[in-house]
Structure formats: structure tokens, C-alpha cells
Write a structure and sequence with these properties.
Length: about 425
Amino acid sequence: MADNLGYTPGSGAEVATDEIGGQHYQRVKIGVGEDGVAVDVSDANPMPVSAQAYISTGNSTTATLAGGATFTGTGELTSHPDVLVTCKSDVAGTLYVDFSIDGGSNYDTTLTYAVAANTGEFHIAVKGKRTCRIRYINGSSAQGFFRLQTQFGTFRQPNQSINTTLQNDADAAAVRPSHYQYEAALGRRAGVTTWNNFGYNADVDIGTEVVCNFGGTFTPLAAASTLTFTCSSTADVNGGTGAHGVVVYGVDANWNSQIEVVLLNGTTPVVTTSTWLGINRAAVYLAGSGKANAGTITITATTGGATQGLIATGEGTTQNVIFFVRDNYQALIDFIFLNAEKLSGGSTPKVTFKIWVFSAVSNAKYEVFRYLIDTSAGDGHLDLSMPQPLVVGEKSAVWIEATTDTNDTSCKARFSLIEVAD
């Protein structure tokens, strides 16, 4: 039977219409379904509607930005429920998704995403019937390339590939088992690093000293300086039987992370190329047949001569319980180990350990933790895992000091932390 049916007006049945301006417009009852099926539209059988996604040209661009410059997109109000944003740049920056309920007069809600250099960003947000625009603030350097695209539509939650590095602000569902600390330690979390800083002071006399193997007191450098490496053995030379070189991790004059490899020259001092505000660790980079540094390697600030680290004979790494938190990062200290003992002489010292923080932002030093170890009471150590971490802000130095009432006290300490990008 043919789909179409002819109709000749006459008596009998009536056709529902709506008369407008002398013309009759037929009222039609909608039915939907596959070929050969017609089901009336109702709450139980709604009309299928698909709002097609489209690219928002006013919120997409490939024009590069100067250092510190901002791209501000055009506010758009559409019926699409979601917004999808992808971007990539060779310079780190910050991506913003702004929402307004009054047509763009006020953007009261903003989603913020940190964008790492040379890392593709992909984000989906629920837009609803709100005006939406995209902003991007570039980092301090001019971009070599910039690709930003915005789409409005209906999108499902994305998945994160099993072998990729997860962003802290990723809105994708991870499809692999995830232990946050382990993944951070393995470099599978972007913007996150783990550190275990450990050290000892084998001879703390009555009074206060830093828990580092070079002893004495510690004061962060007021200005960045190159570092001078002095070795006590001629075997610690590039190509010798001892240490060939040392790799240094720390922060520069702007509190940004930096690494440098220093090739040693025996007892002749060697000066770094870079300037440093502080070092988080220095370790033997390569060694000869002795497999370790043959003598003591002392690291001092070239300007002023203050000791910044010491690699004792055969130990291969500095023993400094000192950490420098870089700019735009925070350190979360969640584990502390402390130990005090008197190895000879029969005394039982009382030792007060303190964790200090110096903030270059406020130019202030403050105490954030203290613990008393009374060795006479058998209380020789502390292992503390904290459910709430100690939070140390950006551009800060944090270290541990020990105050004892007995000469020749041996003190050891360690803290574990996660350094997280803001």
C-alpha cells in the first residue's frame, strides 16, 4: 500500500485547523518511529533531538601570544549543554572557562586549568544555558605556536590512555589502577614531584645546629650565587678512579627548578655555570673504578663562602635535611623521621627538633613543627606519618634543626614530601 493518501473535502470527517488571517493551518499530531511504525510523541516517547556540536570561531585561535599576553574569547549563549576545549602551546600558561547567567555582563563562575608547555590539554565542562567564553593567559615568554579550539555540543566524559601522564586537573577518567604517591614518584603525574630529603649531624654540641653533615647553623642565601666544588682527593677528577662529576638539583635566582652537572678537577676548585639560591640534593653523577667519591666534596656559595652541601668520603650524595620549594609550587610534607642518640660517653641527651620555614614572599622565618626526644626515657626516635600534611608555600626554604643539652649528640632526620604545581 502506498504511503501517501489522497483526500477530497466533503461531508463527514473534519480536519482540525487553526484559522489565522482567513487561512486555515492544519493541526498535526506528531508520531515518530522507524519505517512502518508511528508512535505518538509523549513523555514516555519524546521526540528525538540532536543538537550538533560546532566549533566556536570566537573562542578558537592559532594566533600566538606575547609573554604575559591574554586571549579573551567571545561570550556565546547556545542551547548546547557542554563545552569542549583543547589547546597546546610551547609555553606554559593558564586556561580559563568563564560562565555568565546574565548574557556576559558578569562572569561569576570560572574553571581554571594549568597548561604545561608542549602538553596537549583536553577539557569538557557542563555549560547549560549559560553564556560561555574562553580566556588564556600566556606565561612570561612569547609563544612559538598556539592552538586553541572550543566546541559547543553534547560530549561524554573522556578517558585517559593507560600509558600517559595524568594532569592534576585532568577531567578524564583514568583507566589504570592509580596510587597517587607511586605514580608521582614514577613521573606519571604532571606537575608533581616527590622528594625524600635525609641527613645527619654526627656531632651536635650543646646548643642548636642544622641536621646536615656539614653541621653548624643554616641561613638561606640572600642572593643567588654560583657554587664552588672543592675536593679533598686528587682521585675525584673527570676520568679518575673516584667521582668524575656531580649532578646538582635546586633553585635559581627566580626560584625556578634547575639542574647542572659539574665535572670535578681533583683538588682544584670548580665553579658552576649557573647561580643558585639553594640546592635540594647533589650526588655523584659518574665514578671510576672506586665507584664513589674518594674524598670529601664540599659545596660552598662562591659569594660569601657559606657551606651549602657536603658529600662525605664514599657517601655519594649530600646529607642535607633542607628543601627549597620553587615558584608556583607548594610542598606537602607527610612523613617525618627523627632520631637522637649518644654513641659514647654514657650520657642520655634531651634533643628538641624543630622544622623551620623561610618564605621569600614574606621575608619571614617561622617554626612549623617541634618534637622533644628524651633518650633517658627510651624515646630515641620518631616515625610520623601525617593524615594532614604540613603545607609549605612557594619560594620557601624548609629545614630541620636540633637543640641538645649534651655534647657529641648524634642526630638524624628525614622528611618526605610531594611538590605540587599551583
